[in-house]
Amino acid sequence: MIQHSLDALARFSAPDDDQLKALHNSIISLSTEGCGPRECRALLNVFERFPDHDGDGLFSSIVHLLEPCTGYETMLIKSVGPASVPFNALMSDRLLNSGVTEVGGQSLMALLAAAKAHH
After folding, report:
1. What is the tally of structural domains in the chain?
2. 41 vs 16, 38, 76, 77, 119, CA distance in Å?
3. DSSP 3-state assignment of 107?
4. Disulfide: which of 4, 17, 90, 118 matches 82 by Cβ 3.0-4.6 Å?
5. pLDDT (tens digit per residue) in 13-36
6. What residue numbers bound the domain in which 76 lies?
């Protein structure tokens, strides 16, 4: 079931009605199955591929799915930088607001400042 969800995430290529429905089903499936490194990476890739879209609200569901996953922070940090997109920056801000100031030795404040300077 998880591989099917990962495949659907990889096929998500346009935020149209049919693909958003498939994305929604993948999010529901992963929320019941849990998410490890492969799932986290696949979910972050959705943000990276569609930096100017919110998936008609589904991208917020991805944020909520990722946050309780163990280890997502390291992958998130790798996703923030010159190619930072609004949802990974939002997640970094949420980490800061929860009291996390660094991940893997990387200062979140410095990382966000560098990302902002490139935009």
Report:
1. 1
2. 22, 5, 8, 11, 23
3. strand
4. 118
5. 988 999 999 999 999 998 877 788
6. 2-117
